[in-house]
Design goal:
By secondary structure, the protein is an alpha/beta fold. The protein is built from 13 helices and eight strands. Helix 8 packs across helix 9 and helix 12 crosses helix 13. The longest helix has 24 residues.
Length: about 325
Amino acid sequence: MSNLLCSVIVATYNRSGLLARLLASLVEQDIGPAAFEVVVIDDGSQDNTLDYLNSMQLPYAFRYQTQPNQGPAATRNEAISLATSDLIVSLDDDVVAAPDLLRRHIEAHQGRAHLAAMGVMLLPPEKQLRPWLQWEALSLDKQYRHLKQGNWRATPRQFYTANASFGRDDALRAGLFDPRFRRAEDIEFAYRLEDHGGSFQFLPDAVVHHDPNRTYQEWLRVPLQYGHYDVVMGREGRRSVLRHAAWDYSRRQIALKVAARALVGRHRLVQGFNVAAAGIGSAASLIHMPRVSRAAYSAIFNLQYWQGLSEGLGGREAFWSMTNVMTQKPR
């Protein structure tokens, strides 16, 4: 392998403007441009991404490749195959790197074999988000606070490749990302890193700024997909994933569990609830009632996730059987 300190891999799709912003932020890394390389794989973009990549002139080592659309897992696998450093730092194309980001990841891996590390995603300063994205950002911030305070230990569940690092050989040993997964491919990959002796560390000072731009309909699909892919992992032997889902359900407020009992597994009723709750959440945001808005979008997200579980498991009865049986707190 090369003498580079790390290889930055980026999977991109139809985000040329955001990609340009990320690559510009990497110019400012305090380790200097000779210390790292950047590998970008364009996953069949239909905008001007390829024209932009063809025109790029950057001070650090840079290479790119384009492929027919295959999803984020296959795209990251291709980037890893082209990387020449022993250390991989994975970034999403819609983030901006703090000047010390790569140094923080590199320092975490020094003297640590088989480590997988994850940094934080913060909102850009003074950024105003649409209410469903505001809920998402606050939920992520709550997770980071628990990790930083030591209330939670770092696990595969918090391994998000928007800002993460791992050994290239460890990734190859674990079998790389599973191309079947169009969501949660990073979490599934992290579980296999753990299976092969990997440990996890949270890096609260390894910062990217994330400016999410998902529409409400795009956001609504996210928990549904997470539920579906958690079932896939559970059926393939990862029972702790479903146990975690059941335990998390058991901790929810009574009102939300009552709603779930009436709605989960009944697709049209869930859709109707989502419309009503989104209306409440949007109105509450407009009249500056943030707690009401957050409660509405939290209910939507959780019900969508449980609906994804229900559909993946085969229906209402299978879902309720899971929640009744798997109630032990996951380790």
